[in-house]
Design a protein that fits this description.
- This protein is an alpha/beta fold.
- The chain folds into two domains: 147 residues, P-loop containing nucleotide triphosphate hydrolases (Rossmann fold), CATH 3.40.50; 121 residues, 3-Layer(aba) Sandwich (Rossmann fold), CATH 3.40.50.
- It is built from ten helices and 14 strands.
- The protein has a seven-stranded mixed beta sheet, with helices on both faces. A five-stranded parallel beta sheet has the order 12-11-10-13-14, sandwiched between helices. A two-stranded antiparallel sheet has the order 6-7.
- The chain is elongated.
- It starts with a strand and ends with a strand.
- 37% of the residues are buried.
Length: 283
């Protein structure tokens, strides 16, 4: 195992693993991973992007350049569909190097960790370049042991996550900022979720969602869109998947509207009895 700067390189029995470690979200790990991928592609290696979390940052998306992006796989979990890294497709691509963001990620249904997919890619003889927050490791030794499948292994700590429900409405920004404030106070990660209702009838303007995505990135969080039959149920599934203890949602201005349509917060409290659900009133 070799350390240099913010990188950790480790060679397995098959391919080699290069990890960009960061002390917190938003410090440039993904950007650095893509820069390494472009450098190796310019040197003649076949580089593919297996998974990327751009967090809405245009400079990160631009860094993709002409790199080939592997189509994601999907994980269905309790009525919602989540995109995820497609390891078999990456292996079948014939690549020399696979870029895989967010090594500590777990699938929505919690049946598989991303490090397991990375281990499969390494065993197939492909090199992997990945990213990881230091907070997700108990020790570098145990991290290497999990990838290699040998030695004693300590569980990765589950980092706290604050989930913000973004309806795409005018007060979504207030909800996101409040969730970011709580995340900072709790030393937690910020995950903003917009639920696209499956019937496709009423959708917020794309420009509003783009602004909220950019705001989330500026605040160091992650923005994602999910499909679901109802906002509360889809948010609850996202929160369960992340082990979330705090959920922040907007509150309707009209009490009559709440009585007619039901409160998202009240349904979340029933679905997530152990979580703290905070409502943000429309200013």
């Amino acid at each position: 195992m070799t350390w240099f700067g913010g990188r950790m390189a480790w060679v397995a029995g098959g391919g080699s693993l290069l990890t960009y470690l960061g002390t917190a979200p938003g410090v440039g790990k993904t950007f650095a991973m893509l820069a390494e991928g472009r450098r190796r592609a310019e040197n003649g290696e076949h580089v593919v992007v297996g998974w990327i979390e751009s967090h809405g940052r245009p400079e990160t998306s631009r860094q993709l350049g002409g790199l080939e992006v592997i189509a994601p796989g999907t994980v269905a979990y309790r009525g919602a569909v989540f995109a995820d890294f497609n390891a078999p497709a990456a292996i079948a691509s014939g690549a020399d190097v696979v870029l895989v963001d967010e090594l500590a990620h777990a699938t929505a249904d919690r049946t598989r960790q991303r490090w397991e997919d990375v281990a499969d890619v390494l065993r197939a003889g492909l090199d992997v370049v990945t990213t990881l927050n230091v907070a997700h490791l108990r020790s570098v030794r145990d991290y290497a042991a999990r990838i290699a499948g040998v030695g004693s292994v300590a569980e990765q700590p589950a980092p706290p996550v604050v989930v913000a429900g973004d309806s795409g409405s005018s007060w979504g920004e207030v909800v996101i900022r409040r969730a970011a404030q709580l995340a900072r106070a709790e030393d937690a990660q910020l995950l903003v979720v917009h639920v696209q209702i499956s019937d496709g009838l009423a959708q917020p303007p794309a420009g509003d969602l783009d602004r909220h995505r950019e705001l989330t990135a500026d605040l160091g969080g992650t923005y994602t869109q999910l499909q679901g039959h109802a906002p509360a149920e889809a948010l609850a599934e996202a929160a369960r998947a992340q082990g979330t203890a705090t959920v922040v949602v907007g509150r309707r201005r009209s009490r009559l509207a709440e009585l007619a349509h039901g409160s998202v917060a009240s349904r979340l409290r029933r679905l997530l009895p152990a979580a703290a659900v905070e409502e943000v009133r429309k200013p």
